[in-house]
């Protein structure tokens, strides 16, 4: 059985003060939740604070990005080991906003996933097609290519630690969620690729999250799908009550 994972990607929202207020209000709301891994992905400056405030709780912490090198002359970048030391257990990698605005390539994403694993982080590898790509019938080509490239440096013993997030770009921040059936179709396709790469057993252990306008109103229908193992939530993770409502989808 795969343990569901629900992660809140705060993107470039919340100062450290705002992050601390969120955590103080959020922890009591979710302290009784069992059987769901809960993760917060704050901006880098508040990551150590969020990690210390959530230490010993049932809430984990992710970075929103990492660099692929262990260290070096890469102004403005942060290494997986730095993120790990700051208290993160996970790293979101290859989010579509990074691919779109920061020229992140499939190749870079693959190197980042391998580097995150080597540093002991759980990578949350994001894949997903744009609206133009979906309308051109390229959804499976694009998501499949991004998945294979993102996992190019992962060997099967490490496979089960990887988390995949399917985030159709047209559903991010638009209020237009993929239907549960649309999401399930792509999730099943992605799991098929994982099985081809690593064998059915390893593929069955990997969590595949859905992301794109997830709210407390639509999470249960998404989670009812066979291959949807959690959610990567943007806007609706910014308010404690709203994110707690998603985490308590059962
Ligand atoms: P929204 O939930 O705001 O659509 O964002 C999804 C997302 O990009 C999470 O990484």
Q: In angstroms, what separates the terminal alpha carbons?
A: 16 Å
CATH classification, class level: Alpha Beta
Q: Unreliable stretches, pLDDT < 50, 5 or more residues?
A: none
Radius of gyration (CA) equals: 17 Å
Write the layout of secondary structure elements.
Blueprint: E1 5-9, H1 16-30, E2 37-41, H2 47-54, E3 59-63, H3 80-85, E4 90-93, H4 96-101, H5 106-118, E5 122-127, H6 131-135, H7 139-150, E6 163-166, H8 180-198, H9 200-205, E7 207-211, H10 219-223, E8 230-233, H11 240-247
Parallel strand pairs: 1-2, 1-8, 2-3, 3-4, 4-5, 5-6, 6-7, 7-8
Bound molecules: 1,3-dihydroxyacetonephosphate (13P).
1,3-dihydroxyacetonephosphate (13P) binds at residues 9, 95, 167, 172-173, 211-214, 232-236.
Question: Can you walk me through this structure?
Answer:
The protein is of the alpha/beta class and 250 residues long. It has a single domain, classed as Aldolase class I (TIM Barrel, Alpha-Beta Barrel). 41% of the residues lie in helices and 15% in strands. It has helices at residues 16-30, 47-54, 80-85, 96-101, 106-118, 131-135, 139-150, 180-198, 200-205, 219-223, 240-247, and strands at residues 5-9, 37-41, 59-63, 90-93, 122-127, 163-166, 207-211, 230-233. It has an eight-stranded parallel barrel with strand order 1-2-3-4-5-6-7-8, surrounded by five helices. Helix 1 (16-30) packs parallel to helix 2, helix 1 packs across helix 11 (240-247) and helix 5 (106-118) packs across helix 7. The longest helix has 19 residues, at 180-198. The relative contact order is 0.15. The model has no long low-confidence stretch (mean pLDDT 97). The structure holds 1,3-dihydroxyacetonephosphate. 1,3-dihydroxyacetonephosphate (13P) binds next to strand 8. 1,3-dihydroxyacetonephosphate binds next to strand 8.
């Amino acid at each position: 059985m795969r343990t569901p994972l629900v992660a809140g990607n705060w993107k470039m929202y919340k100062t450290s003060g705002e992050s601390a207020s969120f955590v103080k209000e959020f922890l009591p709301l979710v302290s009784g939740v069992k059987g769901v891994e809960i993760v917060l992905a704050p901006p880098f400056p508040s990551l150590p604070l969020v990690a210390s405030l959530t230490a010993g709780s049932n809430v984990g912490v992710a970075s929103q990005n990492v660099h692929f090198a262990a260290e070096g002359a890469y102004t403005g970048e942060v290494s997986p080991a730095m993120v790990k030391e700051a208290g993160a257990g996970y790293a979101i990698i290859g989010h579509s906003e990074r691919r779109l605005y920061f020229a992140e390539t499939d190749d870079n994403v693959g190197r980042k996933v391998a580097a995150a694993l080597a540093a002991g982080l759980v990578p949350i590898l994001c894949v997903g097609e744009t609206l133009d790509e979906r309308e051109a019938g390229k959804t499976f080509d694009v998501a499949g290519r991004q998945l294979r490239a993102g996992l190019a440096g992962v060997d099967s013993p490490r496979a089960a630690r990887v988390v995949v997030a399917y985030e159709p770009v047209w559903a991010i921040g638009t209020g237009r969620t993929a239907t549960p059936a649309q999401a399930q179709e792509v999730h099943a396709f992605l799991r098929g690729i994982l099985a081809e790469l690593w064998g059915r057993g390893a593929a069955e252990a990997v969590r595949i999250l859905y992301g794109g306008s997830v709210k407390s109103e639509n999470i249960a229908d998404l989670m009812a799908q066979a291959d949807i193992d959690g959610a990567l939530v943007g806007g609706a993770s910014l308010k404690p009550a709203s994110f707690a409502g998603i985490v308590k989808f059962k």
